[in-house]
Structure formats: structure tokens, C-alpha cells
Amino acid sequence: MQAEDFYTRYGSLLFLQPVDRHAGLCALHAATLAEYSGWLQAITAEAAQSASSDGRSIALVVGHIAAWDRFMLQACGEMLSGVAWPGFMDLQGCLDEGGGRRDFESIDAFNAFHADLQRDRPWEQIQSEALDRGAAAYAIYAQPGLLTPGRLEQTRPTEWSLPGGSRARLPVGWLIWMVIMEHEAVEHAADLARAAAG
């Protein structure tokens, strides 16, 4: 999905009533997840070692996406339990794989920490984790009774910018959902599509 198409579809859904917005975003997420998962499944171990547009290996780019998906899944768990402003929004309370809590001063610090962890991991492990977390992130929003429109509406309102200069003000649960989709299927799309094509 081209970035312009994604943001046009996403932006058009923001002004619908919560139930209709939720249904539209589920459909958009299903489309973005299918594309993202297809790329991951097609990337070979050899292609995963090739350089991305920013110089990182494709494996580290995918590991980076999976690390953020993991943190956002933790935010989803907080929202399910009634937390109105997940720690993710302030880079606080990220649980590492051993269950230890980590706070980060910046996005760059989060990225550097996880790149160091993943540098020596085999591609098959990174690929498997990324596929699993991507599917889980979709399921937690799409499955009835989990992150329902009502639960998302109970999160704290926030404002964010969209490409093209428009702004949105909605409960933060809707923003976190957008970030999951954007990260998997827009921000790194060109690199993943190229690596998947071989």
C-alpha cells in the first residue's frame, strides 16, 4: 500500500462514529497486515542481511518493527485493563523479555537498545517474532470483546498530525492503532518490498 493511499484511507475514517471507525480500521489493518506478512515470509536469510535505505540490515529493520510492536502490545494490555494513558506514550515501562521494566529517554535510545539485542539473532527468529507480533497486534484490535470502540474511547484524548497538514484529536488508543499499521506497512515499505522481491 502506498503511503498516500494509507493516509487517505486512515484520515477518512477518523471522523466516523467510533463503531464505524473501528470497522473501517479493522479492514485497513487487515490489508496492511497481509502485505507486511507477505513481505516477511518472502524475505530469505540472504536478503535479510542486505542493507536497507538507512544502512541497517533488513533483519535489523524488521527487528526494529517487532520491538515496537512488542511495546505497543504492552500498551494494548494496559488499555484493556482500563489505563487511559499507556506508558508507551512516554516511553516508560517497557518490559524486556525477562520481565524487567525499562524506561527510555528517547526514541533513539529505544531503537539503539533493541538493535544491540537483535544484532546477532538469526533471521528466522526475528522473522518469526515479527510475524507473531504483527498478527497479535491486529487480533487485539479486531477480536470482539478486546479493544472495542468503547474501550478505545475511554483512553485520554490527544492530538497528532497527519501528512498533508491535517490534525486529528481523538482518544490515544486510536493513535496507537495507527502507529502499529503505519510502522509495519508504510514507514519501511520500500525496503521490505525490495528485500521480498529478492
List keywords for this structure.
198 residues, mainly alpha, Four Helix Bundle (Hemerythrin (Met), subunit A), two-stranded antiparallel ribbon, 4 strands, 63% helix, globular
Blueprint (SSEs and pairs):
Blueprint: H1 3-13, H2 18-42, H3 45-48, H4 58-80, E1 94-95, E2 101-102, H5 107-118, H6 123-142, H7 149-153, E3 157-161, E4 167-171, H8 172-187, H9 189-197
Antiparallel strand pairs: 1-2, 3-4
Describe this structure in words.
The radius of gyration is 16 Å and the shape is globular. It has helices spanning 3-13, 18-42, 45-48, 58-80, 107-118, 123-142, 149-153, 172-187, 189-197, and strands at 94-95, 101-102, 157-161, 167-171. It has a single domain (3-197), classed as dinb family like domain (Four Helix Bundle (Hemerythrin (Met), subunit A), Up-down Bundle). The strands form two sheets. Strands 1-2 form a two-stranded antiparallel ribbon. The chain has a two-stranded antiparallel ribbon with strand order 3-4. Helices cover 63% and strands 7% of the residues. The protein has nine helices and four strands. The longest helix has 25 residues, at 18-42. The model has no long low-confidence stretch (mean pLDDT 94). With 198 residues, it is mainly α.
Give the number of domains. Answer: 1
β-strand number? 4
The assigned structural class equals mainly alpha
Query: What's the SSE pattern?
Result: HHHHEEHHHEEHH
The CATH homologous superfamily is called: dinb family like domain
Our estimate of the beta-strand percent is 5-15%
Number of helices: 9
What order do the strands of the largest sheet run in, or round the barrel if closed? 1-2
What composes the largest sheet? 2 strands, antiparallel
